[in-house]
Amino acid sequence: MVGRAKSPYKHPSHPGRLSIQLYIATLLDLPTEDIIQRQFSVCERQLVKIQANIGSSSSSVEIMTLQFVAGQLEAALDWLNHCKAYPLVLPPDKIPDGEEATRKTT
Questions:
Q1: What number of CA atoms fall less than 13 Å from residue 83's CA on the CB side?
Q2: pLDDT band of 105, cuts 50, 70, 90
Q3: What 8-state DSSP symbol labels residue 32?
Q4: How many CB atoms are closer than 10 A to CB 66?
Q5: CA atoms within a 13 Å half-sphere pointing along the CA-CB vector of 75
Q6: Among the four 5, 15, 25, 57, which has the fewest Cβ within 10 Å?
Q7: What is the predicted pLDDT for the residue at 5?
Q8: Cα separations in angstroms, 91 against 16, 46, 64, 94, 96
């Protein structure tokens, strides 16, 4: 059986994992800006690498695949910008023990 080739690209965190990190930070009343910024930086770096490879590729299949991945990264960056712009606030009935929990902004 042939194994999958290792990708030369650092993959951003899975959106589900990032959502969990943001949720837990909010529950603990911790700032989420650093979490968002780290993920944003990783996505930006990857997008630059992908775009560079689109321009240097001669394979139409590879170009299409890289364009698809670039689109996913652009969508992730849009979502992260949304996370920055709109603080995560948990409704009181969803907070354990009725504690206050909102995303702090600095």
A1: 23
A2: very low
A3: -
A4: 20
A5: 7
A6: 5
A7: 52
A8: 20, 35, 42, 5, 11
Q: Measure Cα distances from 24 to 15, 53, 63, 65 in Å.
A: 14, 36, 38, 34
Altogether, the residues listed in the chain come to a count of 106
**The pTM is what?**
0.70
- Name the percent of the chain lying above pLDDT 90: 46
Query: Considering only CA atoms, which of 46, 36, 41, 44 is closest in space to residue 11?
Result: 46
Question: Which tokens in the block code for residue 19?
Answer: 């959502």
Residue with tokens 């590879």: 62
Rounded CA separation 26/67 (Å): 34
- 48 band by pLDDT with thresholds 50, 70 and 90: very high
How many angstroms separate the CA atoms of 37 and 59, rounded?
A: 34
Question: Three-state SS for 102?
Answer: strand
Contact of 19 with 85, CB cutoff 8 Å: no
